[in-house]
Specification:
The chain is built from 7 helices and 15 strands. The protein has 290 residues and is an alpha+beta fold. It has 2 domains: 9-165, Fructose-1,6-Bisphosphatase, subunit A, domain 1 (Fructose-1,6-Bisphosphatase, Chain A, domain 1, 2-Layer Sandwich); 174-286, D-Maltodextrin-Binding Protein, domain 2 (3-Layer(aba) Sandwich). Strand 1 (45-48) and strand 2 form a beta hairpin. It is globular, with a radius of gyration of 18 Å. The two termini are 30 Å apart.
Length: 290
């Protein structure tokens, strides 16, 4: 979970957190069905964002519009931060942080590892350390898996009508850890990230790059991988995954102990493995002379 000293999660009671989780599950279900069932044949790139590699499809835009419309109707006083359309401020102190398609390149190529991520947070979601998620849900529409949870209420995976609780794996050593990571759309940042992976790879069990940060965090929560690290994520990539991870017994931070996950770095694992992974990734990252 983020260290969000400026965000008082106690302002949202347990019953409201559960209701917010229920709404998040409904939202990802509807948006997930939209992007899966209405994915056009020969889907093209609508435009690019930060670099030529950072693509947006017409379905990203349609899915975020759907999420914003549903939230405006259900929670008109809440803010919304979306990947495509930025921040709409609210008055309630709560903000919804939404990623209409996490793993857009996977979606573009029809690889079955993309997600819709919806979280509700207390505090300012645009400032690292000033926000904390209280409920969230992530759906992989291609596997019919919904990861969801709320603060103090546990984390769960619902798939094909069955629900089970989530718990992080118990791996405590890096040399036996299966790790997940991701890469920036910035080519120079990718070069530095690849150097970190090249150094780590011979010293861990293996490393997976699946292409969707929200799913990576949920896979840590489900014990499918032991840890996850990545630079250049954004709140919409991680907000829902962080509350699910925390409720499954995991922890996440930035590059230094107790620092919040941020664009600079997010490292997630169980409480024993996470400090080891964080220290190693931070050391390798800081050692890059460029």
């Amino acid at each position: 979970m983020p260290d969000a000293a400026g965000a008082d999660t106690d302002v949202v009671g347990p019953d409201e957190r559960a209701a917010l989780e229920e709404l998040a599950v409904a939202l990802v279900g509807e948006a997930g069905a939209l992007i899966r069932d209405e994915r056009p044949d020969g889907l093209g790139v609508a435009h690019t964002k930060s670099t030529d590699l950072d693509v947006v499809t017409e379905m990203d835009t349609r899915a975020e519009t759907l999420l914003r419309e549903r939230l405006a109707a259900a929670r008109p006083d809440d803010g919304i931060l979306g990947e495509e359309d930025g921040l709409t401020e609210g008055t309630s102190g709560l903000s919804w942080v939404v990623d209409p398609i996490d793993g857009t390149v996977n979606y573009l190529y029809d690889l079955p590892a993309y997600a819709v991520s919806v979280a509700v947070v207390v505090g300012d979601p645009t400032t690292p350390g000033a926000w904390a998620p209280v409920a969230g849900a992530v759906v992989n529409p291609r596997t019919d898996e919904v990861f969801h949870g709320h603060l103090g209420g546990g984390a769960r995976l619902t798939s094909r009508g069955r629900t089970r609780s989530l718990e992080v794996a118990g791996q405590t050593s890096l040399d036996s850890a299966l790790l997940a990571t991701g890469f920036s759309y910035d080519r120079e940042v990718r070069r530095r990230q690849s150097a970190v992976v090249a150094d780590l790879l011979p010293r861990v069990r293996d490393i997976r790059r699946m292409g969707a940060a929200a799913l990576d965090l949920c896979h840590v929560a489900a014990g499918r991988v032991d840890g996850y690290f990545e630079r250049c994520t954004h709140p919409w990539d991680v907000a829902a995954g962080l509350v699910i991870l925390g409720e499954a017994g995991g922890v996440a931070s930035g590059a230094t102990p107790g620092s919040p996950p941020s664009t600079d770095l997010v490292v997630a694992a169980n409480p024993v493995l996470q400090p080891l992974l964080r220290a190693e990734v931070a050391r390798l990252t800081s050692a890059d002379p460029h």
